[in-house]
Design goal:
This protein is of the alpha/beta class. The chain has helices at 3-14, 54-67, 82-95, 106-117, 132-141, 153-162, 187-197, 219-223, 251-260, 262-265, 272-285, 288-311, 330-342, 372-388, and strands at residues 24-25, 31-34, 37-41, 99-103, 123-127, 144-148, 170-175, 200-204, 231-235, 245-249, 322-328, 345-346, 348-350, 360-365.
Length: 392
């Protein structure tokens, strides 16, 4: 029986889809020691460079000394600590909502949140390029999932109009920033549709939280529609440099999730050090330092994008710090990634099933803490390698 797994693994290798983990040593930063070599990191979601920030580390140490290393149980048993409630109050204020609820990861949030809010007889309208955790949450919900073409609000309107009848809930779900393409949801149009058709609107802003908007509050703040979003979801492990996730919404919805979201009810709560880290990160995001980091991040992203486009790369429709370089084939993408790593530049190749077949690409992400000279060298190496492989 076990031999069948080996055949499948061999098939993945043959088609350039086999994955293995590379061992990183030391702290997460703009450089890493990767399997014994120093490399420039261009594939991390640590957008503001907070994962190794001294203030966050000190907050984690202090919380561990005071509260210990673990929370002991789920929130509904004995694991509801003052720090959890403090973080949720802070997140609600940050997202301008009545309440918030902390989950153990973005995946746990979406696979708990969506099945809690939607079920048999309900309709979920999901952008075709939404994150896998949204897709899995929809499947677990047993609601009817209707996937609309990426950012095609006209197609979504037709689908909503075609499904006007029924008494069940209608929920529109979209990523705020699409993690593999770097483009931004058309929130003004989605808000208009949700109002017209009486739907709820949920935005997964994992890659916008801490980065976009004047105060780093994400895609909704950037678009000026914070109060029009019914359910804000985001993560604490990307720009905020820690771990975990949150849902911010009305008090009614948050109370409902406490009673119905299985990934919340049946999980030991986040440890005190992680919660304290998130609070410290929010302090930085709200400060002049946070404003400076966001400005530097977007400046870096704009410069790198401009240079790569000028070199002839297809960066798709990226509008953010996520910069895809379209290649097409999985094998060619991984060869591109391998050659860059040989040159000391760590960029991951993205292949099916993460992206559609024929849509493989390198996924570059820049950080506020990158040095300009490192980014300039990276562009030179990426351009030279792209020419060698006939991609540009």
């Amino acid at each position: 029986m076990s031999g069948s797994f080996m055949k499948e693994l061999d098939g993945l290798r043959e088609h350039g889809l086999y994955r293995r983990m590379l061992r990183a040593e030391g702290a997460q930063g703009s450089h890493l020691t990767l399997e014994g070599r120093d490399v420039l990191v261009l594939c991390s979601n640590n957008y503001l460079g907070l994962a190794d920030h001294p203030v966050l580390k000190e907050a984690a140490i202090r919380a561990t000394e005071r509260y210990g290393t673990g929370s002991g149980a789920s929130r509904l048993v004995s694991g509801n600590m003052a720090l959890h409630e403090q973080l949720e109050a802070r997140l609600a204020a940050f997202k301008n909502t009545e309440a918030a609820l902390v989950f153990n990861s973005g995946y746990a949030a979406n696979t708990g949140l969506i099945p809690a809010l939607a079920g048999s007889g309900d309709l979920v309208f999901s952008d075709r390029l939404n994150h896998a955790s949204i897709v899995d949450g929809c499947l677990l919900s047993r609601a009817r999932m209707i996937r609309y073409p990426h950012r095609d609000v006209n197609a979504l309107r037709r689908l909503l109009d075609r499904n006007r009848g029924g008494t069940g809930r209608k929920i529109i779900i979209t990523d705020g920033v699409f993690s593999m393409d770097g483009d931004i949801a058309l929130l003004p149009e989605l808000v208009s549709l949700k109002r017209e058709f009486g739907a709820l609107l949920m935005v997964d802003d994992a890659h916008g939280t801490g980065v976009l908007g004047p105060g780093g509050r994400g895609t909704a703040e950037l678009c000026g529609f914070e109060s029009a979003i019914d359910i804000h979801m985001g993560t604490l492990g990307k720009a905020l440099g820690g771990f975990g996730a949150y849902v911010a919404a009305s008090r009614e919805i948050v109370d409902y999730l406490v009673n119905r979201a299985r990934s919340f009810i049946f999980s030991t709560s986040l440890p005190p050090s992680v919660v304290a880290t998130a609070l410290a990160a929010l302090d930085i995001v709200d400060s002049s330092e946070g404003s400076s980091l966001r400005g530097r991040l977007l400046e870096h992203a704009g410069a790198v994008k401009k240079s790569l486009r000028a070199a002839g790369f297809d960066t798709m429709d990226s509008e953010t710090q996520i910069l895809p370089l379209f290649v097409g084939g999985a094998a060619e993408t991984m060869e591109f990634s391998r050659r860059l790593l040989d040159a000391g530049i760590f960029v991951q190749g993205i292949r099916p099933p993460t992206v559609p077949r024929g849509g493989s690409r390198l996924r570059l992400t820049v950080m506020a803490t990158h040095r300009q000279q490192d980014l300039e060298r990276a562009v030179e190496v990426i351009t030279a390698t792209g020419k060698q492989l006939g991609i540009i």
